[in-house]
Amino acid sequence: MKTLLRLLLLLPLSAAQTPPGCRLQGWKMDTFTQPGDILVGGIFLVYSGYNFPSVKFQEMPKPISCKGFHIRYYRDVLGLKFAVDEINNSPDLLPNITLGFILVESCMSELRASESVMSLLSGVENPVPQYNCHKTSNMVGIVGDMASALSLPIARILGVHHFPQISHGASSSALSNKVNFPSFLRTVSSNMFQNIALSQLINLFGWTWVGMLIVDNDVGEQGGRAIRAEIEKNGRCVAFSEKIHLSYSKKKILRVVEIIRQSSANVIILHSTEPHVMALFDALFDEGVIGKIFISSVSFTITPGLFSRKAWKVLNGTVGLMPKTRPMPGFESFLQSLHPASNSTYPFIKLFWETAFHCSWSGEGMQETGATSTNNQSLCTENVDLKMKIPELFEIYDLSYTYHAYLAGYAYAHALHALLMCQPADRTCANISSIQPWQVLYSLKKTPFRPPSGDTITFDGNGDVSASYDIVTIRIVNGEFQLVTVGTFNPDAKAGHVIDVNTSQILWNERFSKMLLNVFDAPEISGQMKSGTNASRRLLSSFLIKNPLE
Ligand SMILES: *[C@@H]1O[C@H](CO)[C@@H](O)[C@H](O)[C@H]1NC(C)=O
Ligand SMILES: *[C@@H]1O[C@H](CO)[C@@H](O)[C@H](O)[C@H]1NC(C)=O
Ligand SMILES: *[C@@H]1O[C@H](CO)[C@@H](O)[C@H](O)[C@H]1NC(C)=O
Ligand SMILES: *[C@@H]1O[C@H](CO)[C@@H](O)[C@H](O)[C@H]1NC(C)=O
Ligand SMILES: *[C@@H]1O[C@H](CO)[C@@H](O)[C@H](O)[C@H]1NC(C)=O
Ligand SMILES: *[C@@H]1O[C@H](CO)[C@@H](O)[C@H](O)[C@H]1NC(C)=O
Ligand SMILES: *[C@@H]1O[C@H](CO)[C@@H](O)[C@H](O)[C@H]1NC(C)=O
């Protein structure tokens, strides 16, 4: 009787123990849970955008609805799932303890990311700040988000509780500050060296006059300022610096297109997460503004599946930085085994099938929230072969962020293992039934981790890992999207080898090649920086004459 009473009280905890008048109004959040003895929360980007609801006086504003399910982003969720499966099958790592996870989706909205973290912390769909209503198991940490702009609000909230967060993609250097973000760690490097890498790329090609496109949020503003400072420190000039965001109207986008068209700068630094520039790239093509070269920062994930064929043409010749990744043995066959019937408990599996095979389960268009159901789609069937489509759908030639989500899973597993499997004589031991997130945070900072194939990694005092990038270029040849690695950037390398690029592998587009001949003056190819030398000043002044200030 007593147990029953307790159960009754426990189940609707949020409703029973907080009087209705004391509760903030919120919305139901969709979460996905894979049960386990210990849970890791995940806040992932799966959709590339959202519909912002119109706000009326007559009714309470509705929540944001996500749109644009993107398989490459979904792959990051599967990367964490793959790590959890491997860990649960491993006899050495956390034996007899099952790791599970809870997943929420942020769809590129800061508001949704904040809401997700509160929902994860309180353990109910309608989040209750300051309440932990997890019924069965302990959630000890969070993986995510991929974008810095979304990771920042999450890190602010989690920092208050010293609740660990490991981002698999946020590179903003602001997050290294442990006074502001005490519980934030990441498996990608801070973009502190990115500014140097971008600036050295520009030096390498002898460009003196560049434009900048930056995402319209705090992260873009901070990052943009740092990149600009580094470029100017090297005696180069920024022709324009324009903001862009997925919420911009057509009119605002066309204004940016005009600025790009009218500028004589043919090289544009792109510092934005990719969903924010989708509409801009289409507009650039429609308005005939092609032949500019984009130099993308690590914030920009090169994911062809997200962009239209028109945007591909605009992206042709882009040179970009990508975080270094390693192979994930077994991941491809893991993806090949995905099936909506036998893996029906997978998050987003039905939606994935619909997107992959351009079909719908109901015959009424895609399940996706906010999707238009006007398109004429066939009914989905389970008897189709996924295998051949895997490389293209999942873009498996570049595992970045998925690999980093996978690493985050291993970071948690090793930290938990160290806490739970230690000798009682050791004072840093925890008991599984009473393990605390702050204990896990302590252990994460101290415990080296490694995936089954890969090097050992340790977080530094700021929760960062060492930086090194691949330098890649995009080639659209015969209608095919190719991503070619042309070099590396490694700040720890010997002087003269920090940046290493095989320039002959970069295919500039035709209009650009002609322009390049005019300015290419074989600069300091070694990658060593010589700021403000007389040579660069001379170059600068001659260029300024050719390009009257806009
Ligand atoms: C795991 O469980 C099995 C069976 O219950 C037991 O024999 C074994 O000792 C356990 N291993 C550890 C490390 O607790
Ligand atoms: C899907 O289910 C099948 C059958 O249970 C299983 O063999 C396969 O490993 C599962 N795939 C994944 C990705 O878990
Ligand atoms: C639906 O698609 C089929 C085959 O692709 C086509 O024949 C048919 O005309 C389409 N119907 C509509 C209403 O677009
Ligand atoms: C863990 O805590 C539970 C309850 O507090 C206790 O019964 C159990 O003996 C503890 N286990 C260890 C290994 O200390
Ligand atoms: C640079 O790329 C070209 C073309 O692929 C190749 O022939 C050459 O060997 C490369 N140079 C170096 C130093 O790797
Ligand atoms: C991309 O640029 C290369 C190099 O200039 C060119 O050969 C190719 O045709 C371009 N692709 C498209 C689709 O414009
Ligand atoms: C740069 O030029 C100035 C005057 O033109 C000269 O005095 C100075 O020595 C030069 N510096 C270098 C590093 O060449």
TrEMBL record:
Cellular component per GO, a single term: plasma membrane
Record's keyword terms, sorted: Cell membrane, G-protein coupled receptor, Glycoprotein, Membrane, Receptor, Signal, Transducer, Transmembrane, Transmembrane helix
Cited Pfam families: ANF_receptor
Primary localization: membrane
Subcellular location: Cell membrane
Classification via CDD domains: PBP1_pheromone_receptor
TM region positions: none
Domain of life per record: Eukaryota
InterPro entries: ANF_lig-bd_rcpt, GPCR_3, GPCR_3_Ca_sens_rcpt-rel, Peripla_BP_I
Keyword Transmembrane helix: yes
UniProt keyword Ligase, yes or no: no
GO molecular function terms noted in the UniProt entry: G protein-coupled receptor activity
Membrane topology, from the record: Multi-pass membrane protein
Domain Receptor ligand binding region: 80-473
Signal peptide region: 1-16
Protein name in UniProt: Receptor ligand binding region domain-containing protein
UniProt organism field: Pyxicephalus adspersus (African bullfrog)
